Amino acid sequence: MRRSMVGNRSRDTKPEKALRSLVHAAGLRYRVSAKPLPGMRRTADLLFRPARVAVFVDGCFWHGCPDHFALPRTNTAYWEEKIARNVRRDRDTDARLAAEGWLVLRFWEHQSAEECAQLVCDAVTARRGGHGSGAARRSPGAVQPLSAVERAA
pLDDT tens-digit profile of 54-111? Predict the structure, then answer.
């Protein structure tokens, strides 16, 4: 089991790199695998600190995609609890970041990188006030609650 888990990438996956490439080509700059909050032991795949936008590209297996997740036939109880823990951690991360004024964008690995990149660019631009000044971050009314943000389908 350990050998299997150690071999899995936690960053620089194909879907993540495709998204990063498109967002970078659009002129946006970001941090990769960065902690949004001090002391938080979780990292966002792309992090736009001034705009307070955290982007996660979730793997279908590890995060329990409703369309593609298939529970393994062996050690079923272990995997069922493991994936459930991952999903609970994702929801906790979303809530903690929202409470601090962050916009959380989550995408599945099977989603189109082009569509995801467009959503990321639109969100970052909007949070920057449309011109990248960071004004959206300083304005208390510009904070979008997490309840208004759903996992992009």
Answer: 999 999 999 999 999 999 999 999 999 999 999 999 999 999 999 999 999 999 999 9
The helix or strand, by DSSP H or E, that contains position 53, with its residue range, turns out to be strand 53-58
The pTM of this model reads 0.80
Measured in Å, how far apart are the chain's first and last C-alpha atoms? 32
Q: b/e per residue, 41-74, with b = 16+ CB within 10 A?
A: eebbbbbbeebbbbbbbbbbbbbbbeeeeeeeee
The one-letter amino acid at 109: E
User: How would you classify the pairing of strands 103-108 and 53-58?
Assistant: parallel
What are 44's strand-pairing partners? 34
Q: Are 31 and 46 in contact (CB under 8 A)?
A: yes
Q: Across the strands, what pairs with 134?
A: none
Q: Please state, in angstroms and rounded to a whole number, the distance separating the CA atoms of residues 87 and 57.
A: 13
* CA distances to 14, 100, 106 from 71, in Å: 23, 34, 22
Q: Phi first, then psi: what are they for 97, rounded to 5°? A: -70, -40
Q: How far apart are CA 124 and CA 136, in angstroms?
A: 10
